[in-house]
Design a protein that fits this description.
- By secondary structure, this protein is α/β, with parallel strands linked by helices.
- The protein contains 5 helices and 6 strands.
- The chain has a 6-stranded mixed β-sheet with strand order 3-2-4-1-5-6, with helices on both faces.
- The longest helix has 16 residues.
- It is globular.
């Protein structure tokens, strides 16, 4: 049964945006964001995290993040641009995720802070047992400390999307453009 299989949720904060004199919803990516987004897409591809579906904010910086990340991903999963993501609180994002069809094994959500960061923190269960310096502990600590633009949190959980709840997922990766060297190119 599809609904009994594990699920992977990829929460992707939009890449660095510029601040021209336009409405917030219409802000484009900055050069740094244009460099970071394809690098993050390549990381998703290389990590075997090609999504079965993408939920993306309608804000220009989020749509452009997806456009550039998709080029790095080298795949064309179905995408839904949803205006509710733009100003969503974590509970609103969680409600949207719970509506995802059970056949989707990996879901990518591209949105904004503070909702993306707050949702990742809300969903990630605390590690069990003593701190051993393992990846799970360090990624969770890093995520809780700072969730920069273009960062990706990968969470896994058992069951159907409709059953996703606070503390029920496990953070399996937290990656930033800096981790990939994507911020080292010239310009800003």
């Amino acid at each position: 049964m599809a609904e009994d299989h594990g699920r992977t949720l990829v929460l992707f904060r939009h890449a660095k945006s510029a601040w021209p004199d336009v409405a917030d919803h219409d802000r484009p990516l900055a050069r740094r964001g244009v460099r970071a987004a394809p690098a993050m897409g390549r990381w998703l591809r290389d990590a075997g995290l090609v999504p079965g579906h993408v939920l993306c904010s309608t804000a220009r910086r989020a749509r452009e993040t997806w456009q550039y990340a998709q080029a790095g991903l080298a795949a064309s999963p179905p995408v839904t641009f949803d205006g509710r993501i733009y100003a969503a609180a974590p509970a609103g994002l969680l409600a949207l995720i719970r509506e995802v069809p059970p056949a989707t094994g990996t879901l990518l959500v591209i949105g904004h802070n503070p909702a993306i960061e707050d949702l990742a923190r809300l969903l990630a269960a605390a590690p069990v047992g003593p701190r051993t310096g393992g990846s799970h502990h360090s990624d969770l600590d890093r995520m809780r400390s700072k969730f920069p633009t273009a960062a990706i949190a990968v969470l896994q959980f058992g069951g159907a999307w409709g059953g996703l709840a606070p503390g029920r997922a496990r953070l399996t990766a937290f990656v930033t453009p800096r981790d990939l060297g994507a911020e080292r190119a010239s310009g800003s």
